[in-house]
Amino acid sequence: MEIKEEGTSEEGQHFLSASQANDTDGTQFTSIQKSANEPQLEFTLACKDLVAPVRDRKLNTLVQISVIHPAEQSLTRYSSTEIVEGTRDPLFLTGVIFPSEYPIYEETKIKLTVYDVKDKSHDTVRTSVLSEHNKESPSEVGRSFLGYASFKVGELLKSKEQLLSLNLRTSDGGKVVGTIEVTVVKMGEIGDGEADHITTDVQGQKCALVYECTAPESVSGKDNLSFLNAVLKNPVCKLYRFPTSDNKWMQIREQMSESILSFHIPKELISLHIKEDLCRNQEIKELGELSPHWDNLRKNVLTHCDQMVNMYQDILTELSKETGSSFKSSSSKGDKTLEFVPVNLHLQRMHVHSPHLKDALYDVITVGAPAAHFQGFKNGGLRKLLHRFEAERRNTGYQFIYYSPENTAKAKEVLSSINQLQPLIATHADLLLNSASQRSPDSLKNSLKMLSEKTELFVHAFKDQLVRSALLALYTARPGGILKKPPSPKSSPEDSHSQDQPPPMRRQDSIPHHSDYDEEEWDRVWANVGKSLNCIIAMVDKLIERDGSSEGSGGDKDGEKDPALADSISSHPREDWYEQLHPLILTLKDCMGEVVSRAKQSMTFVLLQELAYSLPQCLMLTLRRDIVFSQALAGLVCGFIIKLHTSLHDPEFLQQLYTVGLIVQYEGLLSTYSDEIGMLEDMAVGISDLKKVAFKIIEAKSNDVLPVITGRRENYVVEVKLPATMFESLPLQIREGQLVHVYPVLFNVGINEQQTLAERFGDVSLQESINQENFELLKEYYTVFMEKMPPDYISQFQEQNDLKGLLENLHQNVQAKKRKNVEIMWLAATICRKLNGIRFTCCKSAKDRTSMSVTLEQCSILRDEHQLHKDFFIRALDCMRREGCRIENVLKNIKCRKYAFNMLQLMAFPKYYRPPEGTYGKADT
Ligand SMILES: O=P(O)(O)O[C@H]1[C@H](O)[C@@H](O)[C@H](OP(=O)(O)O)[C@@H](OP(=O)(O)O)[C@H]1O
C-alpha cells in the first residue's frame, strides 16, 4: 500500500471542497459535517495493557494516525500523538481533529498504529513527503511497531457513547498486543453536570481525571466566524486535553491560519504609493518657472522619482500575479518581488474549554519582524538610517533649505488637506446653491453649516508658519526672486534650537534682499477665504430673515396670505436666492483656488528640498520605510479584523474602540547582534509608523469583504467592512464613521546565542531604549484608558485586574539590567490581554523562536487562567511543540519538521524556550 504524508502545507492543508470531496469518482459518500465552521470530528486516544516485545521493557509509546480515503486505497499519514513514557497504559494528551474543510466521511477508514519509541532524537524528525523507494522512512528510525487497529468513522460516530475499544494486532493480524480506546470529543456539547470519569495512571501517579464540560458557550459567534474565514486560509488544527489542578479535563483546540491579507494589503498600499507619488511628481512639474539652478534640481528629482514609480509599478505587477496567495515562507524573506509581503504571517489561536469556566479564545498574530531583507542590514536598519540621514541633512551646508521631518510631514499633511477639502467645499457650495434654488430655508441652513465647517478646516490647515516661509523660499527660487535673509521654517522645536547655530543655508546668505516680495500678500489671500465665507453667511441670514418675516407677517391667522405681501414676495422671484448667492459662491471658490495654488506650490517646494538633498539615498530610504510599513500594516489589519470579529458581542470592547482605541503589543525576540540589529531597527520604525493608521468600520455592500486603504504616507485610513447585520449592532459613533485609532508598542528581548554575544561583547542599548520608550507609550495608553472608559467599568476592571501593579512590575523589569529578561515579555503580553489589545509575536522568521514563545505563552495562560495541573505544564508544552500547529509551521516554511536550533544554541536559551528532544536539529533554512 502506498503511504503518503499529510499535514504539510503542500498537501494536507489544501483540503478538497465539500462538493469536490462528496463526489469523488462519481461515488457518493456520507457527509458528517455538523456545522460549517466546527471541526467535523475530534477524538482522543488511550491504550491499555500493551505488550512489550521484550519482557520488562518499559514502553515509550506514540500513536500514528493515518487515513484511508474511501475513493482511494492509499494510506495518508495524518498526525501523531505525543510520546508517553514508561507505561503500558498510555493516555495521550494530543488528540485528533479533522477540521471543517477536511474531506472525511462515514466511510473514511482511520488506521491507528502504535509504536514503541527507543530513540526520541529520531522521532518527529520527519521529512514532509516520503520517497517512494524509501519504505523505512526517517520516522521509523528509532521506533518499533507494536500493533495497529483500524475503524470506519461511521462506526465510531454510531457507537454507544461514541467510544470504540479496539484490539491492537500485530502486522500479520494475528496476535492481540493490547487495546486502544477512541473517544469522540464534543467540545462544548456536554451539558452542565454530565461527567465522564476516567481513571488513569499518568507517569506513575494515580489520578482520577474527570471529563466534564460546562454548557456550550459560543466564544465568538458562528456568523462572525464565517465572515472571518473569508480572510483566513488553510487552517491547521490540533486538539489536546490536559488535566486541571482538580483532576478534571480541559480541552484545547489550537488553530493556525494564514491570511490573504498578507498579499492584499501590500497590493493596496503599493497602489496608493504609486498614486501619491504620481500626484507629487505632477505637482513638482507644475511648480512653475524656477531659476536655472532649481530647475536643474527639479529635473534631476523628477528623473529619479519617475524611476521609483516605475519600480513600484513593476513590484505591483509581480505581486498581482500572485492571485490567491496567502503565505510567504521564511525562505522567501529575501525575494525582491515579495519585499512588501510579511514573512510567515499567521493567526495562532487557542480555544480553551475548561470546567466551570466560560470558553475562552487567545489570539496571537505571529509574523516575521517587519524588515527590508532584500536591501540588507549592512548599514543598519531604519531607526539608525533615518537618524543619520536627518543629522547629515541638518548639518550639511549646501544650497538646500533644511526642513525638519516634522516640517516635511506637515507639508504632506497640508497637501493632503488641500486635496481632500477643496473638492468637498466645492460640493457643499454647490449643494448650498441647490438649496437656494429650491428656496428651502432648512436645507439652506444645513448646507451652510456643512460649508462653514469644511471651510473653517480649510482655513485652519494653512494657519502655519511653514506655508508662509515656504512661499518666501519659493519666491527666491523663481527667476529673479532673491532675498537677503534665507527663509527659515520656525515651527519645529528642533529648528528653534538650531537657530542658535550658524544657519546652514550658505548659498542664500549672499543673496541680496528682493524688495518686491510682499510678505503680507499671503495673509490677504488666505484671509479672503474667511471673508467670502462670512459674506455667504450674512447673505443666507438675510435671505432667511426676509423669507421668515415675509411669511410671518404675510399670513393671517388662518394661514391665508395678505394680498399686498403676496405681491411683494412675487416681486422676489424663486431664483432670487440662487442669484443672490451665486456670485458669492464664485468668489469663495476663486479665493480658495488662489490659496490652493499658492499653498500647493509652496508645500511642493518643501518636498522638493527633501528629495533634492541626497538623491537617490532619500528615495531608497522611503522605499525601505514603505516596505517595512507594508509588512507591519498587513499584520495589523489582520489582527484588527480578527479582534473585531471575535469581540463584536462585547459592548465594552466596542466602546473602547471609539473612545480610547486599541493597544497593539508586539513581542520581539530579535537579538541585538549582527544583522538582527538592523532588523530590530527596521521593526521599531515600522511598528511606530502604525500610529499613522486609523480604522473605519463600514457596512459591506457586496461580497467583497476585503479592507480598503485610503490616504497617503502620513495618514492612512483602513476601511474594514462588516455585513449589514453585524454593522447594525455597532454603537452609533462607529456606524457614523468615527475613526478607531491604534497604539502600537514594542518590547524586545533577545533570547538566543547571538544575544549572549551581544550581552557579553556587544551592546544591548538598542533593546533597552526601545523597551523604555515603549513602556512610556504603554503607560500613556493606560492613562487614557482609565480616563475615558466609563467609571462603572473602570471600578470593576480595577477590581479584577491589578494593571497598576503589572505596569509597575514591567517598569522595574525594563529598568533592571538583567540578561534575557523574558519576564518583560510575559508582563507586556499580560497587560495587553487585560487591556483587550491585539497581540503579536515576532522573530526573524516567526518560525522557531516565535514557536517557542507562543507555545510557552499558551501553556502559561492555561496554568494561570485555566488551572492546568502543575505537573503537566512541561508535558503540555512539549505536546504543543512536538505535535502542535507550530511544528506544522516549520514544516510549511522549510519542508522539514525540525526547529532550526542546535544543542549549543539551545543552551543559550532561557529554560522554557527549549523544545523537546527530537524536534530540533540542523535544518536547511
Ligand atoms: O541558521 P541557523 O544557524 O540554523 O539559525 C537559525 C536560528 O536558530 C533560528 O532561530 C532562526 O529562525 P527564527 O527567526 O524563526 O527563530 C533561523 O532563521 P531562518 O529560518 O530565517 O534561517 C536561523 O537563523
UniProtKB/TrEMBL annotation:
Its EC number is 3.1.3.66. It is an enzyme of class 3 (hydrolase). Pathway: Signal transduction; phosphatidylinositol signaling pathway. SUPFAM superfamilies: C2 domain (Calcium/lipid-binding domain, CaLB). Residues 16-28 have a biased composition (Polar residues). One of its GO terms (molecular function) is phosphatidylinositol-3,4-bisphosphate 4-phosphatase activity. InterPro entries: C2_domain_sf (IPR035892), INPP4 (IPR039034). Belongs to the inositol 3,4-bisphosphate 4-phosphatase family. This is phosphatidylinositol-3,4-bisphosphate 4-phosphatase. The lineage of its organism: Eukaryota, Metazoa, Chordata, Craniata, Vertebrata.
